[in-house]
What we know:
- There is one protein chain.
- With 388 residues, this protein is α/β, with parallel strands linked by helices.
- It folds into two domains: 39-237, Alpha-Beta Barrel (TIM Barrel); 255-383, Lyase, Ornithine Decarboxylase, Chain A, domain 1 (Beta Barrel), CATH 2.40.37.
- The chain is built from eleven helices and 20 strands.
- It has helices spanning 23-37, 47-51, 55-64, 75-83, 101-106, 116-129, 153-160, 184-202, 216-221, 356-363, 367-373, and strands at residues 8-9, 18-22, 41-45, 69-72, 90-92, 111-113, 133-140, 148-149, 166-172, 210-212, 229-232, 255-260, 263-267, 285-290, 307-310, 313-318, 326-331, 340-346, 353-354, 380-383.
- The strands form three sheets. Strands 1, 2, 12, 13, 14, 15, 16, 17, 18, 19 and 20 form an eleven-stranded mixed β-sheet that branches. Strands 6, 7, 8, 9 and 10 form a five-stranded parallel β-sheet that branches. It has a four-stranded parallel β-sheet with strand order 5-4-3-11.
- A hairpin with a 6-residue loop joins β18 (340-346) and β19.
- α10 (356-363) crosses α11.
- It is elongated, with a radius of gyration of 24 Å.
- It starts with 7 loop residues before the first strand and ends in a 5-residue tail after the last strand.
- Mean pLDDT is 95; it is low at 1-10.
- It binds pyridoxal-5'-phosphate.
- The site of pyridoxal-5'-phosphate (PLP) has 12 residues, from β11.
Amino acid sequence: MHINQSTISENGAVRPTNVEVYLDRLTENFRAIERAVAPSRVMAILKANAYGHGLVPVAQHMVTLGVAYLGVAFLEEGILLREAGIKAPVLVLGGIIGNQVPLFLQHDLTLTASSIEKLQQINQAAQQLGVKAKVHLKIDTGMERIGVHYYSAHTLLETVLQCNSVEVEGIYSHFANADAADLSSAKLQLERFNQVLAFYEQRGLSQPSLRHMANSGAILQLPESHFDMVRAGIMLYGVYPSNEVRQTIQVQPALAWKSRVVYFKVVQPNHPVSYGSTWQSDKMTRVVTIPVGYGDGYFRTASGRAEVIIRGKRYPVVGRICMDQLMVNIGWETAYNNDEVVLLGEDGETGAAISCEDIAEWAGTIPYEVLTNINTRVPRLYCSSSGE
Ligand SMILES: *Cc1c(COP(=O)(O)O)cnc(C)c1O
């Protein structure tokens, strides 16, 4: 039993393919992280449609849990949250481009100041609008993505002192290797960040109230990087950031991806299946068709390697994965039209499971991309529990 009375369908889904999001699992994962990092607080990272789980419903749920801060990548994601009536503080992690600053200010979104020019641009726009811009300074300690290099950060921090329309609420940096077994690079980045923070003491100034650096890898492996707040992304969704990371906090996947058998047939020996005729059976076999494909975000590169669960057992996906359909070889076993197919997640009865890590391996990618790749054509169903 997977979809119960409390199931809310975002768009009245009639499609047999859907993603079930288990809100109770999100709660448990959030609380586990909160307990582990206390007294540091937790920013829930909701970028890329909340790692595929649905931006607004996940944000609303996080707000009910009393989340300290929400984090998104882009201005547009922040505006969607505000338009949905979310009042919690929202930090936009990405760089500011063009003339976006007034939109940030109009929607009460916290800006990332990632260079001196951008800081001044923010200050000017805020001055013109007669408001104070809430800003987190971004220091690059080794990721080389966005942010002011740690070795020139003092110039940024000096400039801040002249920006009267900016309130520096936070300062942060981002790890490149916090999910690795070898933490020497992460520790070097942490040391650089601490050196930047020493500026405040040297100048007799108080530090911004929200210093933050830890992503999931550092939440798990580097408690000394938790500062005032941590930025929990993939762990919140119950998936570990890498295979080698130490799993010091227990979390469980909060999502399952399911479909149903739409077609059953017997395939004769040496009759190839799907585009390119890349697969055929040397004996008579039963093949079922499932109405989901790479047009939904199920990786085509997993062709010939992927497996799905039908009636509690794993079977191979055979032939090329199509845009809207894929074929599964069930050998000489039984399956009927409308049988449930688990693409990702657990079978309620047998406990057979397919993980994000499994799909990532079949597709040659990482679990992050497995989640964010499930696109908006797949309806999301929100369940209070996994029903197991
Ligand atoms: C995506 C992101 C995070 C979250 O990373 P996880 O590894 O998913 O926990 C944190 N901080 C920044 C700046 C990010 O871009």
